[in-house]
Predict the 3D structure of the following.
Amino acid sequence: MIALVLTVSSEPAHGLPPQSPTAPAAEPAITPAAINDAAMNAYRSKDFSRFLALERRALELEPGTPRLIYNVACGEALLGHPQESVRQLDALLDTRLDLGAETDDDFAKVRNTPEWAAFLQRLHELRKPILRGDIAFRLDDPGLVAAGTAIDAHNGDTYIASIRERKILRRNRTGAVSDFIPSAQNEFLAGASLAIDPARKLLYASTSAAPFMVAYRKEDDGRSGVFAFDLHSGSLARKAMLAADGKTHFLNALTVDRKGTVYVADSAVGEIFLLKPAATELETLVAPGVFRSTQGLALSDDEKTLFVADYLDGVWALDLATKQTRHLEVPANTWLGGLDGLSRVVDGFIAVQIGIQPNRLLRLRMDRAWQRIAAVETIESNRPEFNGPIQGVVDGNAFVYVANSQLSLVDGKTGAFPIERATATIVLRTPIDTPARK
């Protein structure tokens, strides 16, 4: 999936999405976002005392937010306070997050201290790889930029969407690879996510315009839709495109219920749509403003609840009858931003966590009442093959996912893609200790 990646730059990273207007420097509005904006203005003016005071205030209002913790650590370091700076960085390490302090010039004043040396030792431990899976297969085309994966439980065929090449590949159980649909068939755009409806023998694919897809045209901007293909022939069964409304949509995560209704998330706008059986128009299920960046969808066993992974703040439960939402509680020292995809297993979910370091594959175990996330386990982390790992699919007692989407190579504005730096796509198969739900 194309995610709203959290980046670390030479200045402290914004802890929250941009808000406008920016609050006055003298008395910012009492919201974390506005305070953070004022803090950044102080940082740019090199008023580091004010920067730190404001970031501390923002963190008091929104405790546990990684970006705010990191910014406080930066402020303490800029003022030459190694103990306090490292204490904040240790809080991030407790959450298994590495936000790039090792190469951030803001920490120059505290680098030659015992506290910093001890921090680097703990950081080294966090960066040790956790390896459980094996390479299932490789796809030799370096220009693929692979995304969503689906597996036909009936015959074992694996389908992989290409964002850049605007097609879907099929790999059969003998290892033969072919184009399930060729590039731009039926005006297919950048392929994002895939989901199979086994009862109706359909493969659903979300697709959106992206500047780095082949044969991109400026008039494609904002276009996005859902395609349904016959699972065996690849012929188009139907498609539903969003009406042009001036917004830049990016339809992404998909899930299908037993009746054949498709739920699809819009990562760019935060909406969720549904496509009813046989319909050719998408209906709004959740309007903008409820979620910020919807990156994963999964249904409860009774299909009355839709679980939503929001890239910025973790997992939510949406009651499909009442449209009420609740944010799922997580264990202490856990942060679930950066989730890409949300795959159901019997006791919870499997998800890839990206946008932070180290990238990892997580298992989220729910409590017995399915009201909160009771435990979070890192299944894999910091694999040498990782270069933009991306959402995958549960296949029996394993999780299958692309290790190196190579989305980091693309320029989302200009569309540039340095293919000479690209490599073959690696697909991993990692065991999980319980089977997927029936």
User: Anything to note?
Assistant: The CA atoms of residues 104 and 336 lie 24 Å apart.
